[in-house]
Structure formats: C-alpha cells, structure tokens
Amino acid sequence: MATPVVVVVGSSGTGKTEFTNLVAGSGFEVGCSLEPCTQEVQVAQANLDGRSFELIDTPGFDPEEPGITRKIARYLKSISKESKEVVGVILMHRIALDRFNKDTSESFEAFKKLCGQQAMKNAAIVTTMWNEVDASVGADREAQLQSNFYKEVIREGAQLQRYQDRTAETAKQIVRQLLQNPGVRLQCQGQA
C-alpha cells in the first residue's frame, strides 16, 4: 500500500514549518530571522488517527529564486517513482497581507504549475496569521480571496480553510480532511 503524502507550500513567512511541526511533532527550525529558515525540502513522518503518512515542508516560493519551485518539483517527481502518493497539497496564505501583491501572485502561479488543474480537488488554500488582523478585516479578505483571487482553483475543487488559532488540533483537522482523498498525480510529476 502506498504511503500518503501531504505537501505544504507557500511564500516564506506563511507558517509552513510551524504547521508541519504541530501536525507531525517534528522539530524543524521555524523562521527566526529576516532570512527564511527552510532551504531544502523537509520530510516529517507523521501519524494521525492511527494512519501513517508523510508531511512535506518546503522552502518558500520566491520570485527572485525560481530554482526553489524547480527544487520542489524535482522532489515531488522523485517520490512518484516510490511507493508514495500525494493525497493533498496545502498552499499557505497570510491573511494579514493587505494586498494580493506580486510575491503572492507568483506563489499562486507556482502552486498551480506544481499541481495542475486535475489535482485541485486534493488542494487546500489555508489562511494563516489571523492574530495579525481584526477578525472582520480577515473575513473581508477571505471573502475576496474566495470570490476573486482563488476563484478558479476553488471552482476546480480546492478548499479555502482557516488556520485561525494556530493550534495543533486545527492543523491536524485540515490534514485529516486531506488524508481522505485518493492519491493524485501532480502536473509536476509528469504523466504516468
């Protein structure tokens, strides 16, 4: 039986590593300076409700470093040759951002290229950093994300979810839902 894999991607500073650590109990270094800490793909062995899986923490998408997206794609392509299957891809988005800026837009484009349209039913866009905004402002931004910026991938099956309280239980609930998905071949993994 194939090992389920959940991949966590997004811009630097969105909380990918913190999220991974809370779900898997891993001890990956969390952003501690102005420089991103995660430089390489990191694999955490995890268990949730008696089910073993891998949670993949990735370096932040960076428009100035297109090699990061290639590095993530290479890793994901390599696991397609192993007895592993991607059941979920999480795109982290900071709700505290007051603009859908160039970095966010380019991160979204990288996410779409990694996944492809067929894999969107296995994707979740997870909003983070709710503690940095007033609840009503966050809710307004969330509505804009759903009706405008992420509309096309939501229409293709991606879920928009809140990681509002930054607790292990909320993070695990998001992953728990993705673990119910059948495996999917990502666009970056090529044809079967």
Automatic annotation (TrEMBL):
Q: Name one GO molecular function term.
A: metal ion binding
What are the recorded Gene Ontology BP terms? protein transport
Taxonomic lineage is: Eukaryota, Fungi, Dikarya, Basidiomycota, Agaricomycotina
The identity of this protein, by name, is AIG1-type G domain-containing protein
Membrane topology, from the record: Single-pass membrane protein
Instruction: Name what cofactor the protein needs.
Output: Mg(2+)
List, alphabetically, the GO terms of the cellular component aspect.
membrane
Q: Which InterPro entries match?
A: G_AIG1 (IPR006703), GIMA/IAN/Toc (IPR045058), P-loop_NTPase (IPR027417)
Alphabetically ordered keywords of this record? Chloroplast, GTP-binding, Hydrolase, Magnesium, Membrane, Metal-binding, Nucleotide-binding, Plastid, Plastid outer membrane, Protein transport, Transmembrane, Transmembrane helix, Transport
Q: Which residues form the AIG1-type G domain?
A: 6-166
Please report the organism this UniProt entry assigns to the protein: Wolfiporia cocos (strain MD-104)
Q: Which subcellular locations apply to this protein?
A: Membrane; Plastid, Chloroplast outer membrane
Q: Which domain of life is it from?
A: Eukaryota
